Structures are given as C-alpha cells and as structure tokens.
Amino acid sequence: MSTLEQLKEQIRKALPDLDVVIGWEQGYDAMHATPLFIREEADIDRLIWSPLCVHSLGTYLTGLTKSSKVQKVGLVVKGCDSRAIVQLTQERMIPRENVTLFGVGCSGCLSHARLEYKVEQGGHYVEDMHAITFNGDKVEVAVDGGVESFDFDTVCLEKCLTCRFPNAIATEHFAGEEVPVAPKREKAPSLEAFEKLPLDERFAFWQDQMRRCVRCYACRNTCPMCVCRDHCISTSRNPHWVSQEASTAENFMFQMIHTMHLAGRCIECGECQRACPVDLPIMLFRRTMVHAVKDTFNYVSGADPEATPPLLTFKAEEDNINERGW
Amino acid sequence: MSARTGVLTEGRELRIVGFLCNWCSYGGADTAGVARFEQPTDLRIIRVPCSGRIDPLFIMRALVSGADGVLVSGCHPRDCHYAEGNYYARRRLELLKQFLPITGIDPQRFEYTWVSASEGARWQDVVTKFTNRIHDLGPAPRMQGGSGYDELCLKQIEEGVKQGAACPCHKERAL
Lengths: 326, 175
Ligand code: SF4
Ligand code: SF4
Ligand code: SF4
Description:
Chain A has 326 residues and is an alpha/beta fold.
C-alpha cells in the first residue's frame, strides 16, 4: 500500500472522532497544492501527498482549537511540521490532547521560488508550466510544449538540504516508510554565503531588501509559532512598537520583532520566507537565531515534548555565556 | 581621565542609550555621581525596575530609531533584587549580541554588564570604556528612506517591466 493509501486509511478510521482533518489537495493548477479540510469521508479522496505539499498546517491550530465549533482536530504533518506541534505543546499553546497527528516521512518539498527562477532563466514564462513529475532525484516540468529537467536538490526548499527531522515525530499515526536522515548540508548555503560579507555590505543589503517589504504580514500570519493573532505587537497601537509608516527602518523593525519573538521557538520551517510575496530572504535572520540558540543553549526547538524552551529557564552558571568581564 | 563628551569633531552628537536596573546599576551610577567621578556625558539613562524587564527589542528599537550605542546594566548574577530577573535577561541579551552581526549592525554597539549600587568606580569605568568605544566606531548607519512607491521605486519597477523575466525583483530567488 502506498503512503498516500495508508494515510487515507488511517484518516478514514479516525475521522468519526474528529471534527476536521487538515491535509493537502491539488491546488488551482498542476504546480500547486492547497490545504484540504476533510470533514466528511468523501473529502478523503481529494487528499494528495507529494513534494508540492509545502504548507505547514500547524499554523491553523492555535486559531482552530480556540473556536467553539471545533473540538478535535487532525493534521497531516511532515517532519518539520511536527516540530511546530511539539514546540507549541512545550509552550502549552495548544490543547495537545485534542489534536491527532498523521505523520509521514518526507524526502523534500519543492521550492516554487527556486523552480520558477530556473524556468525563467531557461527563457520560459512561469505561467506556461503545466505539469510536474517528481522522478527520484529529478524534477521534470512540462513547459511550452517541451520538458525541462532539474536536479531535485537545485529546486527543493533550502531547509530540506539541512533537514535532520524528515520523519514526523511524536505523532499518533505514521504512514509509509521512515525516510533516512541524511542532511546534505551542515548549514544553509544562503547563510554561508551571506556570512562572508563584511558588516557594512550586510547592512546595505538589508537596506535594499527591507525597502521592498510591503508589510503584508504574510510572514507572520503563516508562521506556526506566531500565536498572538489580534494581539501581535507589530500591529497593535498600544503598545505602539512599530509605526504604520512603511519606511525601510520600520519594515526592518517588524522583522526584528518576529525574529526576537521566535528566539528559541523557531523550528526553521521556512514558511515565513516562502509566504513572502516579494521573496525577501528573511530566513537569514531566523537561521542565525536558530544557530545562536543551538550554540549557546544546545537547544533544538520542537524536538522534545518534555524539554523546557531556553528562554523560559536559566542556569545560575551558564555553560556557554562568556560575560566579557567588564 | 580622558572622558570624551558627546560632541564629535564634526559637531555631531552621538546618542548612547543606557538601560539600568533600579536596584543596582542605577544606584551605581548615582554612587559615581555623588562621589563626583568624572564621566562622559552622552549616555541617556533609562531606568527600569529590573534587567529582567529589558526586552531585547528595547535595544533593537533604540538602534533602529537612531541610537549609536546601547548599554545595558543590571545587578550581578546572584544579586538580583528579584532573585532571578538578571538570569533571564542574560540569556536574552546574549542571543541578541550573537544575532546582531547578521543585520549588519556592529555588535560592538551593544554591550551588557553588571554593576552593583556600591560600585561607583566600576560604573565610571564601564561607561567611559563604552563611550570611548562608540566614539571610535562613530555614528551608526541608518536605514534610509520609505518603501512604498517613491520615485526610485517606480523607476526600478519600470526597468523591471522592460527586462521581463530578468527583472531585479527576482534576483533573490536564486538564494
Ligand atoms: S519564523 Fe519562519 S521558519 Fe521560524 S517557525 Fe516561523 S515561519 Fe517557521
Ligand atoms: S511577531 Fe511576536 S507578537 Fe506578533 S504574532 Fe509573532 S510572536 Fe506574536
Ligand atoms: S511577507 Fe515579506 S513583504 Fe510581507 S510583511 Fe513579511 S517580509 Fe514584508
């Protein structure tokens, strides 16, 4: 039985006890998947599982579990998605007992941004892509009557290159085989490259990039760890942390808020950058914070339901903090 | 004593913000003042109840809004008036310190330390050293301009449309 068939079977059995199960279905074209809300058995047929299933569905949880109409929620989760649920559980942000997880092992998801870039470089229009096949290490895209083939590693999401959690963890169900843990890179290549720049060039880069932010807040809204909803300090007037003026400095400040509020919580799912309509490389900020947390507190977010997040605790003598003595 | 004042040779004043906890470091600064220790003058002190009250975003907000340096000082570890506020602070501030370089803001522009209420001389030392450091770094770079559709932005869009798929808006996609 294929992973998808197993998954459908597990959902079919569990559905009578659940108000809704969220998975993915084919989206508006061949290139995209979209979240699927399964409420009745008939909906299960529309479920898909492929590298197009990029969305981290845990982002719906904090809203859904507060609604009076929904008591029990099921979610289909990849490895990275499951870490969001673990971290939310650690922080007691969700009633975990009301959530049923259907885990899968994942060998990487497609980065639409990288693929589209390559297709454009090949002289085609993104709109002309009309079919996609994942064939082991290759991705084949039908475009303009021809077929373009790419190595999967060159068009997958960057997080998949460094992934240490391809298999969903702490789930109630698991469909298919476990995928071997085999990160291809130690560190995200974009971060490695960026860290070679001197400070002034980095600042100039952000000046150029933050200028383009349209403050749509998609990065925040899609983040599974951003749980504040209507109370986010980036959009509240009291306290008034960020001016509504869309200046470069204020856009940058908003990114600082998101990054700081995700310190020790960000599970590096990359959803923020994926959702950004102007492709701002904001994962550079998130990844840097993730590395700082790992180096200083030896903590990996969303890996252990029993662990205490590093900023909710302390040690009288810290292991790795050198207090510069002055 | 070579305490420098807030005015640079070009006549531009540097802005240094200090977040000090009420019980130790603010007291330490007071002790230094009462003892008439000579101190640089460009530190603007903001008194907070405890270093545990200091959100790293206070520091970020100050830096984004035009501070050239930010100094945080609280009670020594084990001496917090509220027992453990500075332990939490230490973790947050350390992360901020490590994070700053990715933004291109020089991490030297931010420092955190501990000064007790009786350590007037130590306060003098800390504030002098930090002020000198910021003077050596000079004024901090600022994020400039509005986004939105100002002239430069419209020009870029126009060029982008001409270039089609090679438009600069897509340049980051390779990352
Ligand atoms: S900040 Fe970005 S990478 Fe981190 S949890 Fe949120 S969406 Fe995921
Ligand atoms: S940016 Fe901060 S305040 Fe806003 S939703 Fe995220 S965690 Fe909450
Ligand atoms: S998604 Fe992108 S454009 Fe929108 S607010 Fe976030 S960084 Fe800005």
